[in-house]
């Protein structure tokens, strides 16, 4: 565990990762290679039904500066320059997309033992300003996440979150969508030796008065193989098995079944990630 509370995006992250990360019903392939000069080139392909999407990402690290350039099948270019530790606890991220001239954005993150702040600003004439801040410790933290549209002069996003962390559990509470949705999540490590953990998330919408409940678990069969399962109150059941057949190279098979519509065929997804 780190000393500080982290960023606002860290509130409830462990629960979200267990419940949703690596589940998919598409086919994805990713391969990473490294040049003799240390440049990392990652090629990705994603098959969604009859649609095939691909992109190539080039990453160059020079001391504390990381430059990422990604080009996709639609000829869009996304460039991100990250300067880490320009000052203690400070990270600066500049990103822009070509040909979208209004996509340029500057983000500044600052991590302290008792606070975590992230501010981003669109580099346009009427930018959208995002601010998120967390205060507390690695045990208890309270934060907020805001967006302000200078063009219309209104707050477009207003969220708040609370997180409690103990030795083997993390509980969080989030108020989202300007107070319309309340979400509570729970993450509990059952056995550190086998990385067995359980997680649950409950979301209530005040507008529709509906609840969404998701419960999941993960277990490590051996040091290289992990299984996960998830079910929600809408009748969707998901499961996956992930095998690390070599360091950082993962093969994942996942499936989804709608228990309320058993006449429909199950959906399956495959993901292969190769790293040298």
UniProtKB/TrEMBL annotation:
Pfam families: Porin_3. PROSITE patterns: EUKARYOTIC_PORIN. It is found in: Membrane. GO terms for molecular function: porin activity; voltage-gated monoatomic anion channel activity. Keywords: Ion transport, Membrane, Porin, Transmembrane, Transmembrane beta strand, Transport. Its main location: membrane. Signal peptide: none annotated. Gene3D superfamilies: Porin. GO terms for cellular component: mitochondrial outer membrane; pore complex. Belongs to the eukaryotic mitochondrial porin (TC 1.B.8.1) family. Forms a channel through the cell membrane that allows diffusion of small hydrophilic molecules. The channel adopts an open conformation at low or zero membrane potential and a closed conformation at potentials above 30-40 mV. The open state has a weak anion selectivity whereas the closed state is cation-selective. This is Voltage-dependent anion-selective channel protein. It comes from Nicotiana tabacum. The lineage of its organism: Eukaryota, Viridiplantae, Streptophyta, Embryophyta, Tracheophyta. The gene is NtVDAC1.
């Amino acid at each position: 565990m780190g000393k500080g509370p982290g960023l606002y995006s860290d509130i409830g992250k462990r629960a979200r990762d267990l419940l949703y990360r690596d589940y998919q019903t598409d086919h994805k392939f990713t391969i990473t290679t490294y040049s003799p000069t240390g440049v990392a080139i990652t090629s990705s392909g994603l098959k969604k039904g009859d649609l095939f999407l691909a992109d190539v990402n080039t990453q160059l690290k020079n001391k504390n500066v990381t430059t990422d350039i990604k080009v996709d099948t639609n000829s869009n270019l996304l460039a991100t320059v990250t300067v880490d530790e320009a000052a203690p606890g400070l990270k600066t991220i500049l990103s822009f997309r070509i040909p979208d001239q209004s996509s340029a954005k500057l983000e500044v993150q600052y991590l302290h033992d008792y606070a975590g702040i992230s501010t981003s600003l669109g580099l346009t004439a009427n930018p959208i300003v995002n601010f998120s801040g967390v205060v507390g410790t690695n045990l208890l933290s309270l934060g907020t996440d805001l967006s302000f549209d200078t063009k219309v002069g209104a707050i477009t996003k207003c969220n708040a979150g609370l997180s409690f962390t103990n030795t083997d559990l993390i509980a969080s509470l989030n108020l989202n969508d300007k107070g319309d949705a309340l979400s509570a999540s729970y993450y509990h490590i059952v056995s550190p030796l086998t990385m067995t953990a359980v997680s649950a998330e409950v979301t209530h919408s005040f507008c529709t008065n509906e609840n969404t409940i998701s419960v999941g678990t993960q277990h490590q069969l051996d040091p290289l193989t992990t299984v996960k399962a998830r079910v929600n109150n809408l009748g969707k059941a998901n499961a996956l098995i992930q095998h690390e057949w070599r360091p950082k190279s993962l093969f994942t098979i996942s499936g989804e079944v709608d228990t309320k519509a058993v006449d429909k065929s199950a959906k399956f997804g495959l993901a292969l990630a190769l790293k040298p």
